[in-house]
TrEMBL record:
Its main location: mitochondrion. It comes from Orthonyx spaldingii. InterPro entries: Ribosomal_uS15 (IPR000589), uS15_NS1_RNA-bd_sf (IPR009068), uS15_ribosomal (IPR052137). Pfam families: Ribosomal_S15 (PF00312). GO terms for biological process: mitochondrial translation. PANTHER family: 28S RIBOSOMAL PROTEIN S15, MITOCHONDRIAL, SMALL RIBOSOMAL SUBUNIT PROTEIN US15M. GO terms for cellular component: mitochondrial small ribosomal subunit. This is Small ribosomal subunit protein uS15m.
């Protein structure tokens, strides 16, 4: 039997306790683009050291990707992308290797996975859109300079390039009048500048003529 006379046993308090109970939400199991990295692979700073061939297995495990953070895994993934787009084994200065293209692609995919888990994170969504716009500009430059390298880079990095759409301006009578006024002001300003340049040129010619007459 319940004693409703006691404050702790009142029905209102029981309902409030049930309402304030934290809700346990199931975490989404979203696959990551870093899952294809083998856990036995060494970190980027220790991969090329000759001493790693003679160290203990415990040390190798501590220095492997099994104990690595996400930042260290991203370094290894970035190095793998560099090897894909590198033109030759000694290529360290090309645009696709040296620029921010590879690093931006890794960061964009990481932010996409983060936003799938936390869709209300507006700060990281803004950062992702900024990185996408920056990568689009870099790809646009590479497309203008070397189209073959642009195609191979997009294929190796698994990027689908979408050129920026032109800004659709609704032509109105007010906009046409404003544009005509701006053109008229620009033309008048160019005429004033031309008159000032002609006046300065005449002054320079007069000074040069006077200097030649003094020398003679």
């Amino acid at each position: 039997s319940l004693c409703f006379s006691h404050p702790a046993c009142s029905p209102v308090l029981q309902v409030a306790k049930d309402y304030a109970r934290p809700v346990t939400r199931k975490r989404k199991d979203i696959p990551s683009h870093l899952d294809d990295l083998p856990p036995t692979m060494l970190k980027k700073d220790y991969a090329n050291l000759p001493i790693m061939n003679s160290v203990d297995d415990v040390v190798k495990r501590l220095l492997s990707l099994e104990m690595a953070s996400q930042k260290e895994k991203m370094k290894v993934k970035t190095q793998q992308l560099v090897e894909k787009v590198r033109r030759s084994p000694s290529d360290n200065g090309s645009f696709e290797v040296q620029g921010k293209l590879k690093k931006g692609s890794i960061l964009i995919r990481t932010l996409e996975e983060h936003l799938q888990r936390h869709p209300k994170d507006k700060r990281n969504r803004r950062f992702m859109l900024m990185d996408v716009d920056r990568r689009r500009k870099l790809l646009g430059y590479l497309r203008r300079v070397n189209y073959g390298t642009f195609e191979s880079t997009c294929r190796e990095l698994d990027i689908q390039y979408c050129p920026p759409q032109p800004y659709p301006r609704h032509v109105t009578k007010r906009w046409l009048v404003k544009k005509a006024l701006c053109i008229k002001v620009f033309q008048e300003k160019q005429k004033l500048k031309a008159a000032e340049r002609l006046k300065q040129r005449k002054e320079w010619q007069a000074r040069a003529r006077a200097a030649r007459e003094q020398q003679e």
